[in-house]
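Z., the sequence and structure:
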Amino acid sequence: MNLLERLNQDMKNAMKNKEKDRLSVIRMVKSSLQNEKYKLGRELTDDDSLTVLNRELKQRKDSLHEFEKANREDLASKLRDEITVLEDYMPEQLSEEEVSQIVQETITEVGVSTKGDMGKVMGAIMPKVKGKADGGLVNRLVQQHLS
């Protein structure tokens, strides 16, 4: 079952169970996927769908951080709920050790050793861990391994 089929099924279940917040997030994701489809002018691949999900999740995490800084617990709580729903559709996340292993292997593959080559390493790693690891974690581990 692809993401859109799963979203449609979950949307029906959320309507039946009167889960307004979950339904709202699912509709938002479907809308974002539809917008991306029109923007690209073709059907979305699983990779495209994952990119949209990542973008939505990152936006909410960034907003959550800002709301917490501003002591807006009412808004932060709502975003935490949205993040939980979005994470249900994300692939299983890699552990820090697994990401570290991938970073080490990629550094060896690319053949770099200085922080100046960090862009090359990040460019090679991110497609491998797309949707499975946070970019901030990958960035931090690459910096550690290159220092």
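Residues 46-69 form the longest helix (24 residues). The radius of gyration is 18 Å.

Let me know what you think.
H.
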